[in-house]
Write the structure tokens for this entry.
Amino acid sequence: MESKTSRIKFLKQLTKINKPYFTIVDIKKILNLPKNSLYVTCCRLAKDKDLYRLKQGIYTLDNSPQNIQYIANTLYFPSYLSCESALALHGILNQIPYTSTFVTKNKTKKLTLGGQTIEYHQIIPCLFCDYILQKNLYIAIPEKALLDQLYFVSLGRAYLDYDELNLHELSKTKFLKLSKKFPVRTQKLAKELIKNFGKISITVK
């Protein structure tokens, strides 16, 4: 793929696949190159930033954080964005977490995509609920994202900085209703937190 014209043609063919990411197999179908030449071509395209390497054998045309989350959501299915990551997107958490956290019914897993850390936390099937599709991304509703975080805090698998929470827009009724689905330890944390609803940047001790 020496000419600029052939490169543009190749990139247009990639977009027609209509996927957020591409595998070596996808690229081989278009270029029809031997394996060694294929990897060299992909490395050259990545170096020129025509393609972005997410991990071994997986590439994308868009390496924005939003697209990487979408890809992460697609790669490990079923899953939905939750906990601190969803809370930040909903405006409940002031800080932007470095790690994108998903909840899944599958095994807990951690990987790196395009330099971004992705974590999938396993949750019991009956708690895999109350999420919506928002801009192609499955994400927990605000109240459920907070409860998911409290659930993993109760298990000693997560931490939540209460000083960074803005709870003034959360529904107290919905939060309490959803909390009844969770184990007792999570419900206790939820009850401790509920008295601070309606406050901005609260502190719980």
Q: What stands out?
A: The CA atoms of residues 168 and 198 lie 4 Å apart. The chain has two domains: 4-60, 65-194.
